[in-house]
Amino acid sequence: MESDAQPTVPPPAPKSRITAALLTFFLGVWGVHKFYLGYTGVGIAFLLVNTVGWFFSWILLWTPHILIGIICFIEFIIYLTKSDEDFHQTYVVGRKPIF
């Protein structure tokens, strides 16, 4: 007899909010915290803005770099102020990529 049961998806691995906050503070402009949390697409976008973007930054008056820095600082504060459970539900289970 064949089973009609659906295959179970394993729960996502827990991520440390303190590790995410420290990565955001020190390496956030390169998207390292996004790669850590599993948001590869957003991590690549951060990485491209802060590597390839350097060639065009003087034309855009450094606006992309300033915006990425502001986003990282806001995320750093949010990561530190959330409880471990709320952080896990929002960013690991809920997969909320920004803020």
Structure report:
Helices cover 59% and strands 0% of the residues. Helix 1 packs antiparallel against helix 4. The protein has one domain. The model has no long low-confidence stretch (mean pLDDT 89). With 99 residues, it is mainly α.
Briefly say what this structure is.
This protein is mostly helical and 99 residues long. It has helices at 17-27, 32-37, 40-51, 63-81, 84-93.
What is the element layout, followed by pairings?
Blueprint (H helix, E strand, L loop, with lengths): L16 H11 L4 H6 L2 H12 L11 H19 L2 H10 L6
Give the count of structural domains. Answer: 1
Low-confidence stretches: none
Total DSSP helices:
5
Q: How many DSSP E strands?
A: 0
- Overall pLDDT: 89
N-to-C terminal Cα separation, in Å? 48 Å
Q: Element order, helices and strands? A: HHHHH
Query: Could you give a short account of the major beta sheet?
Result: none
Structural class estimated from helices and strands = mainly alpha
Proportion of residues in extended strands: under 5%
Radius of gyration, CA atoms, in whole angstroms: 17 Å
How would you describe the shape?
globular
Question: What percent of the residues sit in helical stretches (DSSP H or I)?
Answer: 55-70%
